[in-house]
Amino acid sequence: MKNKKIKYMCLAGIFTAVVFVFTAYLHIPSHTGYTHVGDGFIYLAASLLPLPYAVFVGAGGALLADCLTGFAIWAPGSVIIKTVAVLFFSGKSKKILSVRNLLALLPAWAVCIGGYYLYEALITGNFVAPAAGIPGYVTQSALSSVLFVAVGLALDKLKVKERMLNGGQEK
User: Fold this and answer.
1) 171 lies in a domain?
2) Which of 41, 49, 129, 152 has the most CB atoms lying inside 10 A of its own CB?
3) How far apart are CA 41 and CA 22, in angstroms?
4) Is the CB of residue 75 less than 8 Å from the CB of residue 66?
5) Which of 32, 31, 13 minimizes the C-alpha distance to 21?
6) Where would I find the beta strands (DSSP E) of 10-148?
7) Strands 34-36 vs 27-29: parallel, antiparallel or unpaired
8) Residue 118 lies in a domain
9) In terms of pTM, does the model score above 0.90?
10) Is 6 exposed, middle or buried (0-12, 13-18, 19+ CB in 10 A)?
11) How does DSSP classify residue 88?
12) What is the percentage of the chain residues whose pLDDT exceeds 70?
């Protein structure tokens, strides 16, 4: 049991670093921030790891990216939005791309798009101007979903989840 917790902590740390890099440094600037595919790795972590570890990945990766790239004003919103988005996915199935995790993309999109619109409206005091950011949020969610499905397919073919559950050993 202790080894499993250590494995999950290590994986959560690696995923947090990957989310940070793909969010902070591999992005497209947009009207108030940037569009990135880091969310795809958050979805992968949420589909592989137990919930507390997945929440850490989502909140921690986004927090680091916002705070270390000059967008710290977005950090509180990102922590809440990414934490809620993770809740729709499950690490309990035998595959990453289970029906539940594929369907989870829809509410995750809604939370990310709606959440960032509302957060921007709150910090600007304007509910009209933040609508200009919606296309960027849609693009971010779409690209992250494509990454999630593509990498999830590859990892499922390699039976990564099954190997994780069996302690790294083949059946």
Assistant:
1) no
2) 41
3) 8
4) yes
5) 13
6) 27-29, 34-36
7) antiparallel
8) yes
9) yes
10) exposed
11) T
12) 95
